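Appendix B. Chain record.
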Amino acid sequence: MTALVIVGHGTRSAAGVDQFTALVDRVRRRATGGVGDVEGGFIELSRPPLTDAVAALADRGHRSLVALPLVLTAAGHGKGDIPAAMAREQARHPGLTYRYGRPLGPHPLLHAALAERIDAALAGDDRAGTWVALIGRGSTDPDANAEVAKVARLLWEGRGYAGVEPGFVSLAEPSVPAVLERLRRLGARRIVVAPYFLFAGVLPDRIVARSAEFAAAHPDLDVRVADLIGDCDALADLVLERHAEALRGDIRMNCDTCAYRVLMPGFADKVGRPQTPHDHPDDPVGGHGHHHHHHGRHHGQDPGLRPGQVAVVGGGPGPDDLITVRGRALLDAADVVVADRLAPRGLLAGLRPGVLVVDAAKVPRGPSMGQDTIHDTLITHARAGRRVVRLKGGDPYVFGRGHEEVQACAAAGVETVLVPGVSSAVAAPALAGVPVTHRGVAHEFTVASGHLPPGHPDSLVDWAALGRARGTLVLLMAVDTVQKIAAVLVEHGRAADTPVLVVQDAGQPGQRSLSCRLDEVGELAAREGVRPPAVFVVGPVVALAPVSGVPAG
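Structure tokens predicted for this chain:
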């Protein structure tokens, strides 16, 4: 008899762990024939860890196993991390051999289970008038994302829905709101959101929240959310089918669209990359030494965040939906978030329960956390083995002091990950309808800090040179100094009537744009009560803006 070890990724949801455990028990009850013994464990986040599950089987005399990844699509965990974890178990248990089963994948048993969940949500309403939004996890692996699209098509075929559209809740597009908006524009009046997830967790909860937000904004739509696949006979039977395939050597892994061996658009750098799986904190051994020679990931591309790491993340110009996909994913994984005043604060409300949020705001002429204190906070939490995200506004390296924090962590022996963000230097003008460059108008643009006025002994800006320049000048942190800056620019050659646009609270509901001449900007800022955050755009591109006071975005 060949024993079966069912390998889950792990979840911070107690309900999800309970559902996984219940499925393992169900598989035991339904097992016949070639299944001699069954255990289950996780590679991270949850107990029991995989190492305990394998040890239990080994203690009962098993030396031949089938390791089955309980994942729906073959992304990084299924392709690399679970084989690496099993290699460590072989090192712990000399003589242990295993056959690796394939992920669950698109399968009629799962399609039937999904259809049952959708029918339950419909509660007797007609399928013909129902559109389905099938929402998967999302991945940086195009092969895995493509499988979700395949499931959507197979779910649609022959079942009589008006249509089925795929989407993702993390790391990939289209997002949940984007899919729902697409269906609305296609004429949908009743939509069932079907999470393509096995068990409860943070991401399924987010699907429910995003669907509820969209429904509240569109009261004319009937938006419902179906249950998860969950612990059920269909899932248990599919696990046993995959076990039987592995015993026969019929695993049929999908490598036709593997980004590590086939040149995929946007992923050319992955071809041939060696395996470097990320650390799993519930593994008592620690770092990985195994290299799997077919698939792999590189820490520079890995969206995960390891315990003891600090991710310095650019949050973008302010709105919650202008952060990068990777930045959002790292927030999802964080144990501690150290947030700036201009970071997208709305995202903090969506963090999973138990995440510690540290307010590192620097309020102009108000309370602020010292930079040394910020450094100490990042280092202390990282050394305690926590996943730390330093969430900053804009881009961390554009007047954001991000590199100071990276240097402080490096000096303390703490590893960092940098995630660039959209700088307000380009976002604020764009959101006000102004391109910082436009063909035939500006061939250059300069971003300058106005934190120190012209003539200050610590200023590093050559204001005289900027006065002689003719391209676009973007001023950040210049609310208090813009009048002196304007005077020096005019003194050194900028025309007094050069157009200026002031953009305050870019991307927020209270965004406003004010236009004037360069020699009037100081007076306008004082008269209109301009306050931070505000961006000043100087140059002929300002004439391309829409009507003053009307935001473009």
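Further analysis of this model is presented in Appendix C.
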